[in-house]
Specification:
This protein is mainly α. It has six helices and two strands, in the order E-H-H-H-E-H-H-H.
Length: 151
Amino acid sequence: MRIQQLRELLDYIAECRLDMAKMYHRLHNQADSSRAKLVLEYFEKHQKDVAQHLEDYIDAAPSKILDAWYKDFVFEDFKKRCQDVMLPANMSEDDVLELHLELDNALIALLEKTAASSSSAEVKSALEDLVRVEKIHQHRLVHSTIRMEDI
């Protein structure tokens, strides 16, 4: 995917979150374990919430930040990546968490890369703030998932 403005990048990341939610829903239908299903349901809801928070951020952010331009910024076809993911029916909660962290870290890395290539200090700061928020969301999700193992 070729991205030219920050607004497009953030919209794309929100779409990626929804693609992840669809993937978790699909995997939920294929999973045998009730514990894996519980984790998949939680991840699906979490991704929908994160996408909504990102959309809210886009609606509230100043235009001068969202309109920042980037040259030749290319990222993988994340939708296809999510569609191609297959886990065995006997997947474990750890398998699901490992998959999530792999995909989540790819999106966080994209934000970090964009922040590093931003010429405006204001845009760079805004992206670094988004990265911090994404990492906090990830940290909380991992903790919640680990606590589910105690249920």
